[in-house]
UniProtKB/TrEMBL annotation:
SUPFAM superfamilies in UniProt: AF1104-like (SSF111321)
PANTHER family in UniProt: DAMAGE-CONTROL PHOSPHATASE ARMT1 (PTHR12260:SF6)
EC numbers: 2.1.1.-, 3.1.3.-
Similarity-based family: Belongs to the damage-control phosphatase family. Sugar phosphate phosphatase III subfamily.
Known cofactor(s): Mn(2+); Ni(2+)
Lineage: Eukaryota, Metazoa, Chordata, Craniata, Vertebrata
The name this protein goes by in its record: Sugar phosphate phosphatase
Length: 448
């Protein structure tokens, strides 16, 4: 039976397919990101000199040399090589590489264009971390911080509008019926969904900030949500109100800047409305995929909102800081989130994290990379159910909120993916479309 199931699992997306989104990413977008990283380090050499003296300049030169070598390896499709920095996760990465070599039975086959796209893209960001770590004193420098900061600052009008909306809703929360609460939840959930468009790894670091009122845009974006399971999410969060305390929500974050603000606003609404008692945010332990949230990004964002002179933004920031102080909110950055594994491997590769997620009432996975890891980033038929693509990963009821930026999408009505492909060949990678997909292994009324 296990062999039959394994035989049904499709192959991984790969840059082997010339012209595919994976191919164009490895050929063009990833080298562009590396070039921007090199440029960022070079532009900051005076800062390194000022802070660390000649040692800082030498570290900058050596880091750039390693990154230039990495870019050349990628562009010439060289074999993937083991990590050498001795960090705690290096052995895990190297074992993962060895496993791929054994599967391929050919060391040369584990290369940038021949191997799974998910693996080599994650590996690139881990190699960036290695280049920095091998060159103190700039080991902790965030090469993506400038872009994340600029994106946040350029989204201030949208942040202002969203925080103002939240405060207006909160003034009347006690008067709202359950149906009205659900409608506000649905709006803020969709804001969080479309906030995922602000992804600097997809734009290769170019400006991708939110400049308009996200609430005002929702009605025009509604037709582009291909799957909307927000009612199932709401039922999961509210079904036991009469049987026990409010629920625990876990949010596996994606991008910093405006998207993070949308996640914080959604979490604030659910706590303030008494629907959720605790929110655990999960981010990355080091800079990842250009704009992914790190601990520094998370706490810096809240401090920025507290310090602003806009009344409602600062009020939100003060409340968010109090949530953290009181333990209502917490931030976690398990090393597993920066490993190349599909999530169906989590129970074996990171049993402590899997056990922690089992204590959640709902786990929300934000963004494209999380979706790729949920589904294994494979050539699934579009009509295959979301639950099937998870391949047994079900620590708790879970939901994926994602704007489509890669060639993977499951859980559609039969024929819909093909119809979209005939009209818009790039529908899976343009970020025009989005999904809110729910799965629970214990929910008999779910269509999965």
């Amino acid at each position: 039976m296990a062999a039959d199931q394994a035989a049904q699992v499709p192959p991984s997306l790969s840059a082997k397919v010339v012209g595919s989104f994976a191919y164009l990413t490895v050929k063009d977008r990833m080298p562009t990101i590396l070039t921007k990283v090199i440029d960022t380090l070079h532009r900051n050499k005076d800062k390194f000199l000022e802070e660390y003296g000649k040692e800082g300049i030498e570290a900058e030169k050596q880091t750039i040399a390693l990154l230039s070598k990495l870019r050349n390896e990628m562009q010439t499709d060289k074999p993937v090589v083991p990590l050498t920095d001795g960090l705690p996760d290096a052995e895990i990465w190297n074992r993962y590489l060895q496993r791929h070599r054994q599967v391929e039975e050919d060391q040369e086959a584990v290369s940038w264009f021949k191997s799974p796209w998910l693996y080599v893209e994650c590996y690139m960001y881990r190699r960036i971390q290695e280049a920095l770590w091998l060159n103190p004193p700039i080991s902790d420098y965030d090469v993506f911080n400038e872009g994340k900061t600029l994106s946040f600052l350029e989204s201030q009008q949208a942040v202002m509008a969203l925080c103002t909306y939240l405060e207006e809703v909160k003034k009347k929360t006690e008067e709202l019926s359950k149906k009205e609460l659900f409608l506000h939840f649905k709006k803020l959930l969709q804001v969080s969904l479309w906030g995922n468009k602000c992804d600097l790894s997809i734009s290769a670091g170019k400006d991708n900030s939110q400049k308009t009122d996200a609430i005002d845009s929702l009605s025009s974006l509604q037709p582009f949500i291909l799957v909307d399971d927000s009612d199932l999410m709401w039922s999961t969060l509210t079904s036991a109100e009469t049987q026990g305390p409010p629920r625990r929500l876990d949010i596996v974050l994606d991008n910093a800047s405006f998207e993070l603000i949308t996640d914080l606003v959604l979490a604030d609404f659910l706590v303030y409305a008494g629907i959720v008692r605790e929110v655990r945010f999960h981010g990355k332990s080091f800079p990842w995929f250009v704009s992914d949230v790190t601990a520094n990004d998370f706490h810096w964002t809240i401090k920025q909102t507290m310090a602003t002179n806009h009344r409602w933004i600062s009020k939100c920031g003060v409340r968010w800081q109090s949530y953290l102080k009181e333990g209502v909110w917490s931030y976690h950055d398990h090393p597993f989130w920066t490993l190349p594994h599909e999530f169906c491997e989590m129970a074996a590769a990171a049993p402590d994290l899997y056990a922690a997620l089992q204590g959640s009432d709902l786990v929300v996975f934000k963004g494209d990379l999380n979706y790729r890891k949920l589904t294994g980033d494979r050539y699934w038929d579009h009509a295959v159910s979301f639950g099937t693509s998870l391949r047994g990963f079900s620590p708790a009821p879970l939901c994926a909120l994602r704007t489509l930026k890669a060639n993977i999408q499951v859980g559609l009505q039969p024929g819909r993916g093909e119809r979209l492909s005939s009209v818009e060949p790039d529908w899976m990678s343009s970020s025009k479309y989005a999904v809110i997909q729910f799965h629970s292994s214990t929910t008999p009324w779910q269509q999965d």
